[in-house]
Amino acid sequence: MRSRRLTAVSSFASVGATEGDAGRIASIERTARGQGGRRSDNALLTGVCLMAPLLLFLAFVYVVPFLGVAAWSVTLPKPGLGQYERLVADPLFFSVFVRTFRVCLVVTALSVAAAYAIAYVWVRGTRLQRRLVEFCILIPFWISILTRAFGWLALLSNRGLVNTWLEAAGLITAPLPLAYNEFSVILGITHVLTPFAVFPLASSMRAVDERVLLAARGLGASRLRIFWRVFMPMTASGVVGAALIVFVFTLGFFVTPAILGGGRSIMAAELVWLRMFQSPDWGLGAAISVVLVALVGALMAALFRLARPALMGGSR
Amino acid sequence: MIQRPGPVALVLAGLVCAFMLAPLLAVVPISFTPARFLTMPNGHLSLIHYRELIDDPDWGRSILLSLRIGGVASAIATALALAFSLGVWMIQPRFAALMVGFVLLPMIAPPIVSAMTLYFFLTSLSEVSSAIGYDTWFGVAIAHVVMITPFAVVMILVALSQLDRRIDLAARGLGASALQRVFRVILPNIRFGVMMAALMAFFLSWEEIGVTLFITSVNAITLPRLMWMGVHDNIDPAVAAISVVLIVITTLALSGRMLLQREEPA
Q1: Cα–Cα dist B68/A216, whole Å
Q2: How many CA atoms lie within 13 A of A112 on its CB side?
Q3: Mind telling me how many Å the CA of B67 is from chain A's nearest CA?
Q4: Alpha-carbon gap, residue A194 to B167, rounded angstroms
Q5: Fewer CB within 10 Å, N side or C side of chain A?
Q6: Are the C-beta atoms of B116 and A289 separated by less than 8 Å?
Q7: A149 in contact with B, Cβ within 8 Å
Q8: Residues of B in contact with A43 (CB under 8 A)
Q9: Whether A144 and B227 lie within 8 Å, measured CB to CB
Q10: In the prediction, which pLDDT does A151 show?
Q11: pLDDT at A30 exceeding the cut of 70
Q12: pTM confidence score
């Protein structure tokens, strides 16, 4: 329950759970109503009045302005689909999208692998191991991404820890170019998103039936074989869910890449920012936003279809 | 008896833990550097960057601004989220899932898209009155409300999902009005969840940077916005000092919580 409260991502699980209970409760309620209780119009009105403020607020502050942004993408600087054509045709923008996808893929693989190792110990370790791992997941999770990006600069920049130590040890004469490139961007984003991958993975690992593992052990399977052939396949849906979450988050991320890429390793979301504030080109920024929304929408739809069992059936 | 992780799993998890903590630890030596740029302290340590946090009024101002925005945004967000969640829980509308999905949009959409959208909204609002739109504390608070409300909704819905509906049914059966049910029956039972939601909402506003970057320029400089300038525009070791302060506070708070809470069964 604790991890569920903490993360945005596993939140879908809880919302799903409310839905799941709804059927059962509806039947209790029908019974109650049949016995004389009734849902008065008064209660219905109260409920609607309670829900209305947030729905109206978001419609006014979020949905309508988004339509405005979408309108920019086809009207600025002149009406038409010119901005979208530029996105496809211009090799510079194309290369940004290619880099974005490459970074997304690498970050996804790294985050999910790292999260799998750490979630495994978090779920199945001894009490002490669980505590230690939890500490290492939650402390970074609660610390601002600015601090964390700065931490990577402190480690990787020319006069940072790693280069200073390597030089002191006489292993290198000139600092290695570790920061302000795709390498540092990937490390930085992986660091931010690994905890997000841990929560769905831990959830699917808790759901594994211990008796199946015992049966495999009883039948003489080795540790490795139990892990590969029994445990891993049973957590596959958690892996898919975690991968999609990390991929989607990476796609729209721009603070960490903007700091750790140093303007050289630009990703799609950062390009929006540059186009908005450095070379005012709002139409293009808006067009990229619309493309990102479409991509994320498609991926989220896939997430709900594929990983629903893993995300919904978490630990209870 | 479950089989505990073997040595391979422990070593891998240990490496990941080191990876997770490394950048946080790396900030510490940098914060004691006597130099004005990012470098390892060379022989002697200095506290000038910690002094700067106190001497330079910008830091104090931005912290106060972040506290104010966080407080206002969290209060509004929690109120909106609580009302919405209660409504969903009480009348269970046919399209409940769709409505919840709708209010979670700002959480799911890429932050850059929310940033563009709120930039559009606040610049439009500025045309109505320059006191509440772009680059004002009120504008930032409104934008933060949009970004943090979904998280509050999720936490309050979780709290409500653990509430036994039969209690509410009993109240209804005994003739309680809708208002009585809300204030006398439901709220007292979920107050802890609501408090946690408000706290989480405050925290998310306190550290929000993605959207804030788009909607502020010179007036409404929150703490993350000021840190951004010290990391992105020029590398200022004062950011290392404030980072160490924040890391220490976070670590103490979390350790305290972890020590206090009961261990849940594995």
Answers
A1: 57
A2: 21
A3: 15
A4: 40
A5: C
A6: yes
A7: yes
A8: 90-91, 172, 178
A9: yes
A10: 93
A11: no
A12: 0.85
Among the listed residues A67, A195, A220, the one whose alpha carbon sits nearest the alpha carbon of residue A122 = A195
**Chain mean pLDDT for chain B:** 89
The residue type at A85? E
Chosen from A150, A180, A203, A235 to mutate, greatest number of chain B CBs within 10 A:
A150
Mean of the pLDDT values across residues A49-75? 92
Would you call A228 an interface residue with chain B, using a CB distance cutoff of 8 Å?
no
Distances (CA, A) of B263 to A2, A131, A202, B134, B260: 11, 9, 16, 47, 9
With beta carbons under 8 A apart, name residues in chain B contacting A300.
Answer: 108
Among B88, B78, B74, smallest CA distance to B191 is for: B78
For the stretch B97-111, pLDDT in tens is 888 989 999 988 889
Residue A194 has pLDDT above 90, yes or no: yes
Contact B118 A152 (CB under 8 A): no
Calculate how close chain A gets to B254, using CA atoms only, in Å. Answer: 7
Of all residues in chain A, the one with the smallest CA distance to B6 is: A223
A23: confidence class by pLDDT, cuts 50, 70, 90: low
Say which residues have a Cβ less than 8 Å from residue B153's Cβ, sequence separation at least 6.
A54, B81, B84, B85, B100, B103, B104
For the question of an ipTM over 0.90, the answer is no
Q: Which of B259, B14, B257, B19 is nearest to A120 (CA)?
A: B14
Question: Among candidates B248, B237, B238, B240, which has minimal Cα distance to B55?
Answer: B238
Which residue in this structure is represented by tokens 């209060």?
B75
Separation of first and last alpha carbons in chain A: 7
Contacting residues for B26 by C-beta, under 8 A, at least 6 apart = A151, A152, A154, A155, A160, A161
Q: Which pLDDT value is given to residue A108?
A: 96
| Contact criterion met (CB < 8 Å) for B91 and A43 | yes
**pLDDT at site A41:** 66
The reply to whether residue B179 touches residue A46, judged by beta carbons under 8 angstroms, is yes
**Which pLDDT value is given to residue A5?**
35
How is residue B42 written in tokens?
Answer: 């060379």
Q: Is the peptide bond before B23 cis (omega within 30 degrees of 0)?
A: no
CB A235 within 8 A of CB A208: yes
Q: Which of A18, A21, A292 to mutate to test the interface with B (most CBs of B within 10 A)?
A: A18
Contact flag A154-B26 (C-beta cutoff 8 Å): yes
On chain A, the residues whose CB falls within 8 A of the CB of B83 are 50-51, 53-54
Query: Which residue of chain A comes nearest to B27, CA vs CA?
Result: A151
Question: How far is B115 from chain A, CA to nearest CA, in Å?
Answer: 9
CA diameter of chain A: 86
Q: What is the DSSP string of A238-269?
A: HHHHHHHHHHHHHHT--HHHHHHSTTTS--HH
Question: Is A301 an 8 Å CB contact of chain B?
Answer: no
Summarised one tens digit per residue, pLDDT across range A253-305 is 889 999 998 878 888 888 888 888 877 788 888 998 999 999 888 888 887 77
Q: What is the pLDDT of residues A214-255, one digit of tens each?
A: 999 899 888 889 989 999 999 998 898 899 889 988 988 889
Please name the member of B26, B88, B91 whose beta carbon is closest to the beta carbon of A151. Answer: B26
What residues have CB less than 8 Å from A57, skipping those under 6 apart? Answer: B80, B145
